[in-house]
């Protein structure tokens, strides 16, 4: 059996599977008011196990753009959280300039502070950077050359 061919085919198959899996973008969907809910910051939940907490859902997002909005008292008056709410959602359309950012905007006839991001589960608080496929392929080819040369 030719191990070189088997190794290279496995490597190519893994990279293609990883890239195809990243095409399905998802967002966190939840809403909470003040300190009572589980949607606010910090977001202490593992996004791979959202079913562990009531009210937090991972939804498919065809646009690939997620959002997080803060409505009500935020900033210096955060201690007075009457009417304050945090919402995480999938956006139907990307921002007109396709830029990831946070800014004040009008949402459902209200002024809210909103963040826009593009990526799989990007509207959770903390994002763990995944190893890019190019780096993974480079390391694999180096290991292949060391082991089978």
UniProtKB/TrEMBL annotation:
Its main location: membrane. One of its GO terms (biological process) is regulation of synaptic transmission, cholinergic. Residues 1-22 form the signal peptide. It comes from the Eukaryota. It is a lipid-anchor; GPI-anchor. CDD domains: TFP_LU_ECD_Rtv. InterPro entries: QVR-like, Sleep_regulator. The keyword Transmembrane helix applies. It is found in: Membrane. Keywords: Glycoprotein, GPI-anchor, Lipoprotein, Membrane, Signal, Transmembrane, Transmembrane helix. One of its GO terms (cellular component) is side of membrane. This is Retroactive. It comes from Papilio xuthus (Asian swallowtail butterfly).
